[in-house]
Design a protein that fits this description.
single chain; 475 residues; 12-stranded mixed β-sheet; 24 strands
Length: 475
């Protein structure tokens, strides 16, 4: 009996370590710190540290005014937003300068990313990797053969300074300053993120990856990513996110702009596993020109509140947009996710598949928008929205907004809400499968068709995260 108890205790400890893989922090002395609170002085500090040109300083200060003038979203947004105290947030903290050599990364930062397994993933299957620690990229690397093909994969700051002719052409054009209050906030204080340019006809066989880590307490992380795939280019970009659990809140407010020129293809894959103290308020949008394709493949686990609606503007004929998303909301969490598809050319098509799981008192919300103006022809959209409730007090909501006009345009929308089948769980239990494991199998079966769309390395991690989230959900 004692042996069985010891084995069970060892298993529980192992699960706790895996579940809290991102829940740790090392004491860090920062080289740059703008202090708490947001003002023009904060922006001047960021611009001076980075050595940015005057036009960027003006851009940031304009964005700050827009942010201050715009009210907090209130008509449908989560009441949790009222709990964000912008005066207590640190808007810029950085340790050291970005490095191309892993050996030159500061020890505190290196220990963090080594514990998260970033170097191993780079060696195993990535074409390039960027690791951001709080406000700045600490490490950036790309395979030499890609550089020879003209591929650019650097931080947003390096893109601004070293590739202004490409960077400035598209920066802020897909998501303007005034798009929403949090895109304005990002525009004012953004730091870090990736700038990627894939030349004409170049097709990347391996993905590029960025890893975003919030380390400091009451930290705001505001990375800005801009990806441009030139005509006929193809690429996949993957991002992972973690933060330690603190009693106080952290804010993550990113902006991601994708540009797929004629015939280009971009896949953007996200697996976020934020701690439950993080407000995750993100604006992501892609612009697809003629015959181009943009796919957002998105998984949201963790965070106190996530508000994220990846969008595609289908500006060229025969452009295609797709969003495949999984959201898992546990006790005290609200996953408010969805998608926007804006058809702006004839013969465009879009596909949205959303699956959510609500556990305990968790809340999952799908919020979608599809627009097809009157002058367009032969546009198509398919939307599928499925929700799974685990417990009797779990909650899910669906808010689709579909506007279709014109001739020959078509939209189909399907939504379903279900509970885990008691018969199915009973059937598995009768074959010797414990109830918690049976529940996990049922949930993985619910999302399996979407999990297969993730790269193999991410799909394995995603299934493991779902298993861990299901621990203790029975009852």
């Amino acid at each position: 009996m004692s042996s069985q108890t010891d084995d069970r205790s060892a298993q529980e400890k192992a699960l706790a370590v895996e579940r809290d893989v991102g829940n740790f922090s090392y004491e860090t002395s920062y080289d740059f710190d703008a202090g708490k609170g947001l003002s023009e002085r904060t922006i001047d500090y960021i611009c001076d540290v980075k050595g940015e040109p005057d036009w960027m300083r003006e851009f940031r200060k304009k964005a700050l005014k827009v942010f201050n003038d715009k009210p907090m979203p209130s008509s449908w947004a989560s009441p949790d937003l009222a709990n964000i105290d912008f005066d207590r947030i640190s808007y810029y903290m950085a340790k050291g300068r970005p490095s191309r050599s892993w050996d030159e990364v500061p020890d505190e930062v290196k220990k963090t990313f080594e514990r998260l397994g970033v170097p191993e993933k780079e060696r195993a299957f990535l074409a390039g990797v960027e690791a951001q620690f709080d406000s700045e990229s600490s490490y950036s690397s790309m395979k030499e053969e890609l550089a020879k093909q003209g591929v650019i994969f650097v931080s947003s700051s390096e893109g601004l300074m070293k590739h202004p002719e490409i960077f400035r052409q598209w920066f802020g054009k897909v998501i303007p300053i005034g798009d929403n209050k949090f895109s304005a906030l990002n525009s004012a204080v953004f730091s870090g993120g990736s700038f990627i340019y894939i030349p004409k006809g170049v097709k990347l066989k391996q993905p590029l990856q960025a890893y975003f880590r919030i380390n400091a307490e009451e930290m705001g992380q505001f990375e800005r990513t801009l990806i441009i795939a030139d005509e006929g280019a193809e690429m996949m970009y993957m991002e992972g996110c973690t933060a330690p659990q603190y009693e106080t809140s952290a804010l993550h407010s990113a902006v991601v702009e994708l540009v797929a020129l004629k015939g280009a293809k971009i896949q953007y894959v996200t697996v976020q596993n934020w701690s439950a103290s993080v407000f995750n308020l993100v604006t992501k949008r892609g612009l697809a020109l003629e015959d181009a394709e943009i796919r957002w493949i998105d998984c949201n686990i963790g965070s106190r509140l996530t508000m994220k609606y990846p969008a595609v503007v289908l500006r060229g004929e025969r452009a295609r947009g797709e969003v495949l998303s999984i959201a898992l909301a546990h006790d005290g969490q609200h996953q408010d996710t969805g998608s926007k598809m804006i058809h702006a050319a004839d013969n465009t098509s879009s596909n949205i598949v959303s699956k959510s799981i609500s556990i305990g008192k968790g809340r999952a919300t799908y919020r979608g928008m599809v627009q097809m103006p009157r002058h367009l022809k032969n546009c198509k959209n398919n939307t599928e929205c499925d929700a799974l409730l685990i417990n009797t007090n779990s909650r899910t909501d669906t808010y689709p907004a579909i506007v279709v006009r014109g001739e020959g345009n078509s939209v189909q929308h399907e939504a379903s809400v279900s509970k885990v089948s008691e018969e199915q769980i009973f059937y598995m239990q009768q074959r010797g499968i414990p109830e918690a494991e049976a529940m996990s199998l049922a949930v993985n079966g619910f999302v399996n068709d979407l999990v297969r769309e993730f790269p193999m390395e991410y799909s394995v991690e995603l299934r493991r995260l779902i298993d861990l989230e299901m621990e203790g959900s029975v009852g």
